[in-house]
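Let us work through a complete example step by step.
Step 1: write down the sequence.
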Amino acid sequence: MPGDRPKPPVHVVAAVLRDARGRILLARRTAGRDLAGAWEFPGGKVEPGETALEALERELREELGIRIGPARPLVSVPQAYPGKRIVLDVYEVDQFEGTARGLERQALAWSPPEKLASYPMPPADRPVVAALTAADRYLITPEPADRAGFLSKLDKALAAGARRIQLRAKAMAPADLAILARDAQIRCRAKGAQLLLNGEPGLAAGLGLGLHLRSAQLMALSSRPALAEGQPVAASCHDAEELAQAERLGLDFVVLGPVRATDSHPGVEPMGWDKFAALREGVSLPIYALGGMKPADVAVARRHGGQGVAGIRGLWPK
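Step 2: predict the structure and record it as tokens.
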């Protein structure tokens, strides 16, 4: 009826369980349920009067016949489905007692982490896979002032653990950018880091790099840019329309913001964490929070469904 408040989301919990070989347990949704046949992280609904951890312990005992040890939060994913909304709280569980069995006749599979993305999953589980397998920080480089100084700072960032980096050099001449990108590519590959090039699809394809699309570029496309196999395509997003376009094109991840006020976007109203989570609910993409972010904000971003944080000042070495 008009004026009725929207129903609160259904609270669901799930566990990341690992065996001695580091494989992660997935359970297949049985016939007769929503999204039957999809694979998911095992768990279930939180019942009235239960805490999330109490529900997790009960669900895994009833579904798998195991007793779990300590659990630590991984990510909380708000997700909208036709006719309902959920919040999926996911915990990592390092120890459990017993042998996991499908007590509700559900199929089980132990998957290596790098194979998780090959399983068809409900939308809420895709960000969980990303949280387990991809970087929680997305470093965006400042405009390079000089090549040697820039590469020295990049080396420091890589040594400190940066593993997903966007080379952003809007003012650089194309020939100079190509040289810098090759130098950065060599350094990133040596550390096993992903390098994405901002706004230059032709150069990214030619060098075998990933690509980060500006929001205007994103909205002008009708298909995902063609890159070398395995190279990611990402984009900058600011609203629900841009997020939906990124998902239609099959992008690998996006940044969303500004979450907080920043000097680089004066006069732009920050969306805050509540709006970030509300926008995150409408798509299944991994999303980095952008705008005034620091490494310490990764945990906050994860509590609102984010992959982690993206930024320049807060992540680039001083």
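Step 3: interpret the result. The chain has a mean pLDDT of 95.
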